[in-house]
Write a structure and sequence with these properties.
Layout lengths: L2 H10 L5 E5 L6 H16 L3 E6 L17 E2 L4 H10 L2 E5 L11 H6 L3 E6 L10 E4 L6 H11 L8 H14 L10 H12 L4 H9 L4 H12 L2 E3 L4 E6 L1 H6 L22 E8 L4 E8 L5 H8 L3 E2 L3 E6 L3 H11 L4 H5 L1
Protein name: Bifunctional oligoribonuclease/PAP phosphatase NrnA
GO molecular function, one term: nucleic acid binding
Organism: Maribacter algicola
């Protein structure tokens, strides 16, 4: 954060406020970790805080300190709307456009509160009075740590806050292997461990609590993988019928797309997952090197994200979606095979 942002935030929070803290729809480890960490920090500063999620989040994150206090817009609709309407300040974390919160968007658009954005995705919208945006950060959790540090409050980071921030950094960096992981990221993680973050327990709770049905679903996904050697590309499909067959629960497909990138020479990996209720195929894009899946998702699939990790959607059938996707690849053959 720069000096002006810190000064503006200190002024905004100079007296006790009613603060709503919002992650994106289908929140992941970074979204849940950052919102819970910020909520606990601001509560220590004397504010009345509440994390309000657009919908439910994966079971493997529900152990996190404070996760049981999150209000779910789909399940606690009246309470969520009331808190947003009465909030003095709304922090939006790990997203930068109201389009990322689903049906909650209307509430945010009509809110009288002042908005603060903390996010590391590209091309932020301009809705916030304070926008802390840094696409070079590994995660929004790393940004929350930096925010707390900039406010002069590192001493307020306790074990619960450290566990939340560690979880978000770990998950959003692919256990510290992605390119956005810097030496500063590791220094922050070291301090979080000094503050009590239990790295071994966090890894086990996030990655080692699979159900048999999730592993069977992974087997189905890998069996469905198609490799397009000509374009150094691999894609996976999962239909609603396949999800239902293996008792899909929210979060079960987390990380599946990354298996494509474990293949030798593959530079572009994609997964298409049907959501029959919404009438779409949700798409996750991953890449290595300089190939921007953010631009690819924005240009063709109503999405966006980071250079090497992005999301999108398609309202076409699976066959039409795949045909369209494959038809785009010749335009990028040089970039994918260089």
């Amino acid at each position: 954060m720069n000096f002006e942002q810190v000064a503006a935030l200190k002024n905004l929070l100079s007296s006790p406020k009613r603060i709503a803290i919002i992650p994106h729809k289908n929140p992941d480890g970074d979204a849940i970790g950052s919102t819970l960490a910020l909520s606990k920090y601001l509560s220590k500063k004397g504010h009345n805080t509440q994390v309000l999620a657009p919908n439910d989040f994966p079971k493997f994150l529900k152990w996190m300190p404070g996760a049981d206090q999150i209000l779910n817009y789909e399940r606690h609709n009246a309470e969520t709307k009331k808190f947003i309407a009465e909030a003095d300040v709304i922090f939006t974390l790990d997203f930068n456009d109201f389009g990322r919160v689903g049906h909650m968007a209307e509430c945010l658009e009509n809110a009288k509160a002042k908005f603060v954005m903390v996010d590391h995705h590209q091309q932020p919208s301009g809705y916030a009075v304070i926008t802390y945006s840094d696409i070079n950060m590994s995660s929004t959790c790393e940004m929350v740590y930096t925010l707390i540090d900039a406010m002069g409050d590192r001493d307020l980071i306790d074990q619960d806050i450290a566990n939340c921030i560690y979880t978000g950094i770990m998950t959003d960096t692919g256990s510290f292997k992605f390119r956005a992981t810097t030496s500063q990221t590791h220094r922050i993680v070291a301090e979080l461990m000094d503050k009590g973050a239990d790295n071994t327990a966090i890894h086990q709770r996030v990655y080692d609590t699979n159900s048999p049905s999730r592993l069977h679903l992974l087997g189905c996904a890998l069996k469905n993988m198609v490799i397009l050697e000509e374009f150094n590309t691999a894609y996976i499909t999962l239909t609603q019928e396949e999800l239902d067959r293996y008792d899909y629960e929210k979060g079960d497909t987390e990380g599946f797309v990354n298996y494509g990138l474990t293949l030798d020479k593959i530079r572009f990996a994609v997964i298409f997952i049907e959501n029959k209720e919404e009438g779409i195929f949700k798409i996750s894009f991953r890449s290595v090197g300089d190939f921007s899946v953010n631009e690819f998702a924005r240009n063709y699939f109503d999405g966006g994200g980071h250079t090497n990790a992005a999301g999108g959607k398609s309202e076409k059938s699976l066959e039409e979606t795949i045909d369209y996707f494959v038809s785009l690849l010749p335009k990028y053959k040089k970039a994918l095979t260089a």
